[in-house]
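Field log, afternoon session.

UNIT: design team B
ACTIVITY: writing a sequence onto a fixed backbone
BACKBONE:
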């Protein structure tokens, strides 16, 4: 029974994480952060592919800043 409880905890954490990420992406879309320079979009009428390189760089910079602040705040 303990294994089911631990799987349940993991599923709840994954679900909460997905909800937070979804909320952040939803908010970013409302702020107009979707079509940034460096994002690639190619395809034709029947298919398409979107590669958000510019958005990935922005997210990476923001996460680096946040994680550095958290590490300094924790004093490690």
């Amino acid at each position: 029974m303990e294994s089911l409880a631990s799987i349940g905890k993991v599923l709840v954490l994954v679900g909460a994480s997905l909800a937070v990420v979804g909320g952040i992406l939803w908010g970013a879309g409302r702020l107009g952060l979707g079509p940034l320079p460096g994002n690639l979009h190619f395809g034709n009428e029947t298919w398409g592919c979107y590669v958000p390189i510019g958005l990935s760089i922005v997210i990476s910079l923001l996460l680096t800043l946040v994680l550095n602040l958290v590490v300094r705040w924790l004093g490690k």
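LOG NOTE: The helical segments are 2-31, 53-74.
NEXT ACTIVITY: expression trials, pending approval
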